Amino acid sequence: MAALFVMLHHCWLLSFPGYPAATGPGWLHWLLYGHFAVVVFIVLSGFSLAVSPARSRWRLGGVRRFARRRAWRILPPYWAALAFSLVVAWTLVGQPGEAPPTVKSVAVYGLLLQDLFGAPSPNGAFWSIAVEAQLYLAFPLLLLILRRAGAPVMLGAVTVVVAAIGLLAPGVPLVHLLIRLTPQFAVLFALGVVAAGVLGAGERVRRLPWHWAAALAAVPVFAVIAVQGSVWTVGNYFWIDIALGPSVALLLAAVATGRPAPLVRLLDLRPIRSLGSFSYTLYLVHAPIVVAIHQLVVAPRVTAGLPAFLAVLALAVPVALLTARLFAAVFELPFQRYRSWPELRGAARARLSRRRAAARPAP
């Protein structure tokens, strides 16, 4: 659902110029904040990675094994999406405000270094994948601190370091360079890790009203956003992200313990579960599709604003969903089902053998 929200956000951006000002209809202003979906991604990433360690006294089970499994999970669809994005940018249309991708773009984005080195972007959604990969490097250290010193110490240490960067960045050029790494996401990731502890906690902790705590934590953040407006909020994402993180972490803890029941039932619906199975690929491939349809089909024929937005929704969203599902069938789902090249090759050979057997005429 967060990946779908990011796609709707990009449809909004292309239809209503002036970001970060809210130039569209008031009832669509919530689509301006697609960045908050990435906040959800990062907290959820820390949470999901910590599920197994939380149930085994915060033990990772081997750094090498963890690194191999993470690379196997995220790199094949990412590299395939990178190739797809480069082809679209070179043959159809590039990303708004970006020069055509170069050889440097291929190297920088291929090595997940786009938040360290500047290069023309082939895909506006790729910036967060580099951050995600860098947080994976910190994950074993976070677990080590948590196991030896406890969750408050781990979370407090990360928060203090990140807050110091945020306070010093405006006046210290060297520290300001670190803002490119979106260091606030380290706090969000750590919050997700700590929230996963609810799965290994006793029944008394699991029965706490985590969903009400999540709502209470979110109210002041959204109140500030409503009062200050979109321009101020976007300019202060560093602090707003950190403030929003606890409510997301608490919500994940609530859902993991089965509350609130209506939300859990919604997330368990078959269409939502199906969407979730290829949501990573949807996030990776939707931007070139949305931009191409808007620039080549909608913009020349439809008035900018609400008519263009509705047209992009009607055309780009179904195409992106279908493309992502087909893309995931080749580059994501097989790597979820099979955890190594031998397993993947064996499954491919077995499927090919079944097809050949089915194609043979009956005697």
Task: Give an overview in words.
This protein has 363 residues and is mainly α. 72% of the residues lie in helices and 0% in strands. α2 (35-54) packs across α12 (237-256) and α5 packs across α6 (151-168). The longest helix has 29 residues, at 63-91. The model has no long low-confidence stretch (mean pLDDT 94).
How would you summarize what this structure contains?
The protein has helices at residues 2-15, 35-54, 63-91, 103-110, 127-149, 151-168, 173-176, 184-195, 203-206, 210-228, 230-235, 237-256, 261-267, 270-277, 279-298, 306-331, 333-337, 341-359. With 363 residues, it is an all-alpha fold. Helix 1 runs antiparallel to helix 2, helix 2 (35-54) packs across helix 8 and helix 8 runs parallel beside helix 12 (237-256).
Low-pLDDT segments? none
What structural class do helix, strand and pairing data support? Answer: mainly alpha
Q: What string gives the helices and strands in order?
A: HHHHHHHHHHHHHHHHHH
What percentage of the residues does DSSP assign to strands (E)? Answer: under 5%
* Total of DSSP H or I helical runs spanning 4+ residues: 18
Mean pLDDT: 94
Determine the fraction of residues in helical runs and give it as a percent range: over 70%
Largest sheet: none
Gyration radius from CA atoms, angstroms: 22 Å
The tally of beta strands, per DSSP, is 0
First-residue to last-residue Cα separation: 51 Å
Shape category: globular
Search tags:
single chain, 363 residues, mainly alpha, 18 helices
Topology:
Elements: H1 2-15, H2 35-54, H3 63-91, H4 103-110, H5 127-149, H6 151-168, H7 173-176, H8 184-195, H9 203-206, H10 210-228, H11 230-235, H12 237-256, H13 261-267, H14 270-277, H15 279-298, H16 306-331, H17 333-337, H18 341-359
Helix pairs in contact: 1-2, 1-15, 1-16, 2-5, 2-8, 2-12, 3-15, 5-6, 5-8, 6-8, 8-12, 10-12, 15-16
